[in-house]
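Working notes for the structural subgroup meeting. M.R. asked for a predicted model of this chain before we commit to crystallization trials. I am recording the input and output together here so anyone reviewing the notebook later can reproduce the run.

Input as submitted:
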Amino acid sequence: MPLVDDAAELDLLAEIEGATSGRLIAEERGLGGLSPDELVHGVPHARFINASFAYTKPRAVMRFNPADRGAWYAALGLETCIAEVGHHLTLALADVGDFNAVVEYGEMLASMSGVFVDLRELADHPALDSDPATGYAEGNAVAARARADGHNGVIYPSVRHTSGTCVAALWPNVVQSVVQGAMVRLTWSGNPEYVWEPI
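Returned structure, recorded in token form:
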């Protein structure tokens, strides 16, 4: 059953959605710790870039971003991306008590340059602790110092995929030349273990 009957109703629905869209609010007047001047405009996939900074986990920090400011999290390989995304989606499913889900994701390829804090040779760094109580607090301290020092982000060994490397871009304009890559499907069938496949 369609949500709307005609183009006018679709426009109205888009306007209602836009009134509560964190990305649109951030682009217009800023949101939390994010100024509208920091966001990107007129570049391919600007909406994806801006959304990664505007949408945060409510009242919760992540490894390299506070609760009021997101980051662009990426990895140097698709399997590492899947391990990271799969971990966090599994936690979300655990929160609702239902491990039955099928989720499709599009890989977004991007280039980045500039100075990054490099933790790749520091596997025992407290920011990389798998316990969020330790790792996320320490990671936010690293990210805050990096932003204050004008660094573009953090490059670090994946906590979820042993041989993987991850990147957290701390500023929207660091994420450049974004194009869509592969499509993948992650499936949970009643337990925390998931399988993934290209689609």
